[in-house]
Write a sequence for this structure.
């Protein structure tokens, strides 16, 4: 009698092979189907101008520069208006301020968080009046390290104006402070800190700034009339020599 088990073996072998084939096919299809759900590797993107602009704090100089670049502009113009106190008349100014004839011998502009700062270097040619500065050191800023040393006959004055090229953009900052001209002599009413060799102009506006012309006459930085300008014209005829002689008496 034939072995019943032997008779069923061929069907069993075929069925097994069929199941294996189906399983293999299913696994392959499943792998392909699953692979469609694997996110492709992301390609790193270069930061756009908008990204950089968004990263800069609003109202900062850096934000203004990036905005200009995004708009295709080449120039950024800023304006700063300082407000504070008036210089007063001649008598008050002479009793309070140091008055010097000084020549501008150098300047340097720096980029700040919100605008430009320019430090002007003056060499004193003559001191006409000398008064002690206020006893408040915090009023006098410390100069930048690359402007040091400052000679005994020199002083630095800080102003919030200037012109500077930053990342291909021309930044121009205007203010109600003076933009001094190099190699030019000025009559200045100011306070000088003897240890820091930095100075503060007397008055918020440049009312105590006078250009000394080649003939020795004074020309005020501000055109409009004001007490100090009027008194200098009336008492000294806008002459440096007249002023010098009168103050010696």
């Amino acid at each position: 009698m034939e072995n019943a088990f032997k008779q069923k073996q061929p069907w069993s072998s075929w069925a097994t092979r069929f199941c294996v084939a189906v399983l293999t096919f299913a696994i392959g299809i499943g792998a392909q189907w699953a692979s469609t759900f694997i996110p492709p590797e992301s390609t790193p993107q270069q930061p756009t101008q908008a990204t950089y602009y968004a990263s800069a704090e609003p109202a900062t100089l850096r934000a203004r520069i990036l905005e200009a670049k995004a708009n295709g502009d080449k120039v950024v113009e800023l304006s700063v208006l300082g407000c504070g106190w008036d210089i007063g008349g001649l008598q008050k100014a002479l009793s309070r301020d140091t008055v010097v004839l000084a020549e501008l011998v150098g300047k340097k502009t720096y980029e700040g968080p919100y605008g430009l700062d320019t430090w002007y270097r003056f060499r004193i040619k003559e001191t006409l009046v000398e008064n002690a500065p206020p006893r408040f050191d915090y009023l006098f800023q410390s100069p930048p390290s690359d402007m040091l040393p400052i000679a005994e006959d020199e002083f630095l004055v800080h102003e919030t104006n200037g012109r500077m090229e930053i990342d291909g953009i021309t930044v121009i900052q205007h203010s109600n402070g003076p933009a001094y001209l190099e190699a030019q002599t000025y009559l200045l009413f100011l306070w000088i800190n003897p240890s820091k060799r930095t100075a503060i102009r007397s008055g918020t506006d440049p009312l105590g700034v006078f250009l000394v012309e080649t003939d020795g006459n004074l020309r005020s930085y501000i055109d409009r009339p004001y007490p100090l300008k009027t008194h200098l014209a009336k008492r000294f005829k806008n002459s440096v020599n007249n002023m010098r002689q009168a103050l010696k008496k």
